[in-house]
Backbone:
C-alpha cells in the first residue's frame, strides 16, 4: 500500500511515496515488512523509481543471499496460491497456519543456505500450536522445498522431519483435536482490565463475535449495520482483500452491551482523529490513522496480559472460546458454523443454509460474557 506526501529538500518540492519492498529482520530479530521511500518531482517520477528499484531486486534475486521468509512469501504469492491442484480452502488453511506461527519468527529470517534439516526439526518442535496446525505448516513447507529443489535453488531437507504428536504450551501438554479456550475468569479479567486501552473494543469483539484477527483489523464503521457486524474483508500481507471463501462472508448479531462499546470507541476515535489530523472509517488504527500490523497487535496484547497477570495466548483462542461457549449452550451446530464462517466442507458446509437472523441473534444473546 503506497502512501504519498509532499516534502521539501534543499528548497525544492518533491513527491514522496512509500512502498513495501520485501521483508527484513527488525532490531528484535523478528521478520517484518520492509518499507522504503522514493522521491520524485512528480508522483509518476517517484513511482517510476520504485518500479525500477523492484525490477533490480527481482533481476538480482538469484545473485543475493536468500532468506527463508522472503523466498516463502514469493513462493506463496507466485506459485502456491495459483496452483489449481489445491482447493482455495486448503491453500488458506496452510497459509494461515504458516503466517500465524512461522512468518514473523526468527526462523523466517535465516538464510536458506544456512538451514539444515535439524534446524527445521527444532523449529517444528518449538511451535506452540496443535499438531494438526504443525501438519498444515509442514505440508506447505514441504511443497516449498520440493519447488526449491526442482528449481535447483537448494535441496529438499524435509524428508527426515518427524512431526510432534504433542506440543508443550506454557508447560502443559496439548493433545491434537483439543482446543484451547479462555476460562470465564480469565475472560472477565481481560475485558474489565482492558477498559481504557485503545484495543479494548478489539478484545470485546474478539470475545463476542469469534472473528479472526485479520477480519477485525479490516473492519470499518460502515460494516456495522442495524446492530449487525458485516464481515466481508480481511487484512492480508498489509492489504485489505476480500475473504477467500463464501462461507467466511457473514453477518453477526451484536449484543446491546457490545453496541454501546462500539459507540464509546467511535466517540473516542473521532476525538483522536480531530486532535491528530487524520480521517478514517476503519475501526482499529494507530494514533496516526494507519492500519495495525498483526504482530503489533499481538505484542500489545502480550503486554496487557502480563500487566493483568494473564498467561499470553494467541488470538485464535478467543474464536475457540466463542464457539465452545455456543456449543455448550446447546446452540445447533449449523448456527455455530454460520456465526464462525467455517470453511470445512467435509464437516459443516451442509449446515450453512437456513440459518436466519433470529437464530443467530438468540445465540449471541445467550453468551455469558461480562463486559
Residues:
Amino acid at each position: 500500500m503506497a502512501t504519498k506526501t509532499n516534502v521539501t529538500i534543499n528548497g525544492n518540492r518533491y513527491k514522496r511515496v512509500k512502498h513495501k519492498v520485501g521483508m527484513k529482520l527488525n532490531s528484535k530479530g523478528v521478520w517484518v515488512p520492509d518499507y522504503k521511500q522514493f522521491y520524485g518531482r512528480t508522483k509518476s517520477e517517484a513511482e517510476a523509481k520504485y518500479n525500477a528499484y523492484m525490477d533490480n531486486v527481482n533481476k538480482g534475486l538469484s545473485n543475493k543471499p536468500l532468506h527463508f521468509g522472503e523466498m516463502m512469501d514469493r513462493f506463496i504469492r507466485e506459485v502456491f496460491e495459483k496452483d489449481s491442484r489445491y482447493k482455495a480452502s486448503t491453500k488458506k488453511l496452510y497459509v494461515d497456519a504458516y503466517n500465524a506461527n512461522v512468518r514473523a519468527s526468527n526462523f523466517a529470517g535465516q538464510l536458506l543456505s544456512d538451514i539444515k534439516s535439524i534446524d527445521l526439526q527444532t523449529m517444528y518442535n518449538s511451535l506452540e500450536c496443535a499438531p494438526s496446525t504443525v501438519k498444515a505448516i509442514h505440508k506447505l513447507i514441504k511443497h516449498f522445498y520440493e519447488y526449491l529443489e526442482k528449481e535447483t535453488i537448494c535441496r529438499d531437507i524435509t524428508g527426515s522431519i518427524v512431526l510432534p504428536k504433542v506440543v508443550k504450551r506454557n508447560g502443559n501438554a496439548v493433545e491434537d483435536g483439543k482446543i484451547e479456550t479462555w476460562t470465564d475468569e480469565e475472560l472477565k479479567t481481560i475485558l474489565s482490565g482492558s477498559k481504557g486501552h485503545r484495543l479494548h473494543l478489539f478484545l470485546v469483539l474478539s470475545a463476542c463475535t469469534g472473528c479472526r484477527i485479520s477480519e477485525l483489523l479490516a473492519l470499518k464503521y460502515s460494516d456495522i449495520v442495524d446492530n449487525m457486524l458485516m464481515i466481508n474483508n480481511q487484512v492480508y500481507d498489509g492489504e485489505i482483500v476480500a475473504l477467500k471463501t463464501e462461507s467466511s462472508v457473514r453477518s453477526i448479531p451484536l449484543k446491546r452491551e457490545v453496541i454501546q462499546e462500539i459507540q464509546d470507541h467511535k466517540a473516542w476515535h473521532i476525538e483522536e482523529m480531530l486532535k491528530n489530523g487524520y480521517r478514517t472509517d476503519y475501526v482499529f488504527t494507530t494514533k496516526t490513522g494507519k492500519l495495525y500490523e498483526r504482530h503489533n497487535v499481538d505484542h500489545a496484547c502480550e503486554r496487557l496480559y502480563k500487566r493483568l497477570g494473564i498467561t499470553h495466548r494467541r488470538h485464535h483462542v478467543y474464536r475457540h472460546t466463542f464457539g465452545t461457549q455456543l456449543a455448550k449452550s446447546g446452540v445447533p451446530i449449523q448456527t455455530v458454523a454460520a456465526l464462525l464462517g467455517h470453511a470445512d466442507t467435509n464437516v459443516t458446509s451442509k449446515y450453512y443454509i437456513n440459518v436466519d437472523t433470529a437464530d443467530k441473534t438468540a445465540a449471541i444473546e445467550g453468551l455469558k460474557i461480562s463486559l
About this structure: The longest strand covers residues 12-25. Residues 21 and 43 are 18 Å apart (CA to CA). Residues 170-177, 345-355 have pLDDT under 50 and may be disordered. Residues 256-276 form the longest helix (21 residues).
